[in-house]
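Entry type: protein chain
Record version: 2
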Amino acid sequence: MVCNAYLIQQAWQKWTDSPVIVAFAETTTPVWNIPFPAVTICSEVKSRSTVFNFSEALLSNETDELINKQKGDVSLLCDDHVLCDGEEYTDESTIDFLMEVAPPFLDTIFLCKWNNTISENCSDIFTRIFTDEGICYSFNMLDKQDLFRDNVITYSESDNLRVQGWSQDEGYTPEAQLKTYPNRALYSGTAGGVFIVLKANRNDADYYCKGPVQGFKMLLHNPAEFPMISERYLRVPLGQEVIAVVQPSIMTTSKNLRSYSPQQRRCYFPSERYLTFFKIYNQPNCELECLTNYTLSQCGCVALHMPRKGDTKNCGPGKKQCMIKAAHNLRLSRIVSTDKYDITECDCLPACTSTVYNAESSQADYEFLSVVSVYGDNVTEYAEYEASRTSIFFKDVQFTTSRRNELYGIVDFLANCGGLLGLFCGVSILSFVELLYYATLRLWGNLRAFKKAKKKNEEV
């Protein structure tokens, strides 16, 4: 009995601790069943020197109040070591100024092609958004009306490209058209991808703010994910062509795991986790919301790129160090359990259905002016510019999908317990029937026979 009880306890521990296994799905997934990755591109130029020379203003002993405010505003987008004295809180005027001094769209994206078709107006497929890298342009990202809740304030533009026939959990519906949103590739290779020519005016470069590397940062992400460019990105240097071959990592979850708790299966279904700022749950959105809440609790304000409610203040240059420290402490709290802020409050498990876009990159020299000269265009018109080119496309037509399945369910647990009981105690289901019989019918029969015998003895 002791050995039997010990082994059943081991079987119970296995059932509760590791009920889920991740394995390859039975079938592969074609590229047209998943959305094409959202592509967000940010210039390293945060303030055009021809409009506002940040380096000159920072290194001078300027006493003008407006210039000091402007250089403080730009410093919010610079590297962490670039600090300026300024107000602790700021308002929409900072956003307006940063948009004014940032490179305009036509000085950033020169040419674009999607699904082997050149776009006459690239602004039709790119949306201007405000991220942790300042003004960026995003292709195939969900409109803010589909991504954020109605009472949330963000500084991203709306392009009115609304979701059609797609959800993060279910994917594209059978009724979805070939041309839908978010866009999907119909085939692999360069003909089914996006092709972008980027340009930058060399006179606008400012090396104090972002350091010696000029060019662009590019992030490939889920269309339902708000991009955090500074956390992870691909570099697109000036004068280079960068090829990004995408190999998506797709994770799905069996429906029979809904009966398990999220902590057991290690993921959330959409209806199980509510986000205050976002309509769609995924791990990056949850982590951004967690960072926003923690920054607000530590600094009394949030960064310009963070979503906020109407009464929440935006942090100014006087709070930059506080924001940096808050982000650092939040990362440490994953390891140091004694941190004042409990990381379990974030509870940012992965979504049960998720797609991560991994990319293999390669690059080569891009002779922009030579191409312009060959086509007979006026080279002097582009003499001040340097250009880059990038192509993003899927590597294969079919991809292997991973799937969470039930490893050890209730049937397996009962079968294991039955085998152990039979092995050690000779117990079967009939043994339980016998116990029930002896505890009920047999006991009742014995009591009845005892009463009859007692009554008979009394009569005698």
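Comment: Confidence is low (pLDDT under 50) at residues 338-344.
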